[in-house]
Amino acid sequence: MRAHHRLVRRLPTRAIDAAAYLQAFVLSGVVTVLAVRAYLQATNYPQLGGGGLHIAHVLWGGLLLVVGLGIALVFLGGGPRTAGAVVGGVGFGLFIDEVGKFVTARTDYFYAPAAAIIYVAFALLVLLTQAVRGRTGRARLAPAERTANALDLVLSGLPGGLTDRRRIAVLRLVQGTGAATEAALVQLLDAVPRREPPPVRFWQRGAAWARRFAAWAVGRRWLVWPVVVWLVVEPVVTVVAVVLDGVTGALDQEREWGAVLGVSATALVTAVLSLRAAWLLRRDRTEAFRLFTLALLVDLLFGQVFNFTVNQFGAVSAVALDLALLGVVTAEHRRLRRAAER
User: Which pTM does this prediction carry?
Assistant: First the structure.
């Protein structure tokens, strides 16, 4: 136990909002890649430069990565860190978009597996974000780390003041850290000027509406059954379609055979999992929805990698659909588990 405490003290202090910063980085990077691809396709892939020069957007990506890092290094507070994450995410999006040029001898921007590489990069970042989220919640931070985060919030509010919401967040962070620490933070808060909350912007209202709609949708029981039917039918149809294309000779024109086999193998695995889940629905619904969740994760983490190679960025819609289905299935799985534990 003492060795564990010594290890905790030696490690850097974890930021309680680290997952939010990573999420901003990932989202801005994804939006950048999609926007760049759409713009280049709409404008027939123009080149910036002349006289034998071509200023690739990977260079702008590197510049924005430096700017984003500089913002986070120079300024205090959550606002600058979020801004640095967004700017850095845009830079990473510009950088990773040109990965095809750096993994091929002929510097091929249109290298087919490049889309899959980009997808894998962002998928790994999403997994990292989830891992960080699970380790930086208030309950997972040591008292000293919660105190450090509370002090960071207070100090970042010294120039312009703290809203009442921020003050409550600071007090919640230091609850249970000791009477002396709590009293010291209260005194420190008294020295910080109060600030009215900023007006709610249109994009914040849009995001709040989207969250409420998502929460409403995953709670609709009637939505579960169409999702179940789709999860059973779609992978089976995919496997049958690939077999028919092979019989009729339509696959002879396919250039990315490895990716086609990957899509087929993943569809076969998800079909088996979904059919098994459908079979269990009458006897053990909790286990059935666990298998449905597993089938979707297999498709997201493996199948979509090959799908991006075959269909390029047309696979974005399939990923969006998988994520929506995953939200419904995991919500139903959590409901069934809670009901079983009562």
Answer: 0.84
